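# step 3/5: fold
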Amino acid sequence: MEIKTISLPKLNNLSPTMESTALKLMEETGELAQAIGKFRGLNGERITIEEGEVVKMITEELLDVAQTAVSMMFVIEEKFNLDIGKMVEEHINKLIKKGYIKND
């Protein structure tokens, strides 16, 4: 099983709640969808940006989504005393059971 590990920091200058982080996650996901649609020409507009720049912009929005998701994990761990590491293991097992990944 191939795994990509990305470490993102805790945003220690904020006091996020689960609700505020969920709203931010939706906002960032919308921006990602907009970048994919607009800059790939899916909204009917003429594309004026080079492919490499489009992919860079999409990646920047994707990292904003990832950062916000990681921030929510920090909130859940701290406020609700859940072990995210254990939850990740359970998540991977679920993916294996659904056939999304092979268990090597």
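# step 4/5: annotate
The mean pLDDT is 91.
# step 5/5: archive (pending)
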